[in-house]
Design goal:
5-stranded parallel sheet, globular, Rossmann fold, 305 residues
């Protein structure tokens, strides 16, 4: 995601959507105060992607200033100079830990409690909330051997993740019913398994189908609360096994596998790879997907419940 994406050109459309603070009355205010733009907030919620995690030179996954939230914020701030970002993203967060806490430290004990507290304290001044959560819930299923074990694991974890997500959204909507929100679905790092011969081909196809189904479930929950979804799955071309793309040192690959190798650290040599997190260019692709989803917002998002 070191690329300058055409998608970033729609930043103005989203900024116009998420901004809209009235100019303060001038009266006898000092000129410096009159020129200061009104403060508004962009609140980022989620897991390691919201935190901009990437591997460092030793291979450790660390927070960086190049995540999708950071890049999205820079694009929005060009049209809204008073915009401030508050990033509560927590590496390793699941839908359950977002509700109950236990991974990162927050006022109130959990990311959701901190978000609710912030939204309540800044009611009417939050221009946008973005969210990605749920990728770590069925994450343990990826290591299951065989289709039967994978399916059994998914049957246990996926419905609970959907129920937890509904709880999270309901609590946010309760404290901030009109706040604009955009969520995202997930790309599939495990498509890199394609490179491991026939067994890898089978596993990649199986996991692609499972991820598409999981994304559909998450999207249904988000949309039931009036939250549009950035189609990151599609942006990473995860539904396309057709054709070939030749990458240096990796050879010919299907386009979706090549996208994973170009936009994440999955195909990188040790110690940085393999690592499922996006690189800077990959985070830019995700930011672009959020911008496209936000440009379609006609006005303040409204809960359906």
């Amino acid at each position: 995601m070191r690329l300058v994406l055409p998608a970033l050109a729609v930043a103005g459309a989203l900024a116009a959507t998420v901004a809209g603070c009235a100019a303060p009355a001038t009266g006898s205010m000092p000129s410096a105060a009159r020129s200061r733009p009104p403060a508004s907030y962009y609140l980022s919620l989620g897991d390691s992607l919201a935190a901009g995690v990437q591997p460092d030179s030793s291979g450790a996954s660390v927070r960086t200033p190049d995540g999708y939230a950071d890049q999205l914020y820079l694009a929005l701030r060009r049209r809204d100079p008073g915009l401030r970002m508050v990033d509560l993203g927590c590496p390793g967060e699941t839908t359950a830990s977002m509700i109950d806490g236990g991974i990162c430290s927050y006022p109130g004990g959990s990311q959701l409690a901190a978000a609710v507290r912030f939204l309540g304290a800044h009611r009417g001044h939050v221009s946008l909330v973005t969210m990605d959560i749920g990728a770590n819930d069925p994450g343990s299923c990826i290591s299951q051997a065989g289709a039967v074990a994978l399916a059994a694991c998914a049957v246990r974890s996926v419905p609970q993740a959907a129920a937890n997500l509904a709880t999270i959204l309901a609590r946010i909507r309760r404290v901030a019913p009109g706040v604009r929100m955009i969520a995202m679905n997930y790309y599939l790092p495990a498509l890199s398994e394609w490179r491991d011969g026939l067994a890898g081909h089978v596993l990649a196809r199986l996991l692609e189908l499972a991820t598409a189904g999981y994304n559909t479930l998450l999207t249904h929950v988000y949309q039931s609360y009036g939250v549009p979804v950035a189609n990151v799955f599609s942006a990473f071309r995860s539904a396309d096994f057709a054709g070939q793309v030749t990458l240096p040192e990796l050879g010919p690959l299907p386009p979706n596998v090549a996208a994973i190798c170009q936009w994440t650290w999955e195909c990188a040599a040790p110690p940085r790879g393999p690592n499922e997190h996006p690189n800077q260019a990959g985070y830019a692709v995700i930011a672009g997907a959020f911008l496209r989803a936000g440009a379609r917002l006609p006005g303040p998002a409204r809960p359906a419940h």
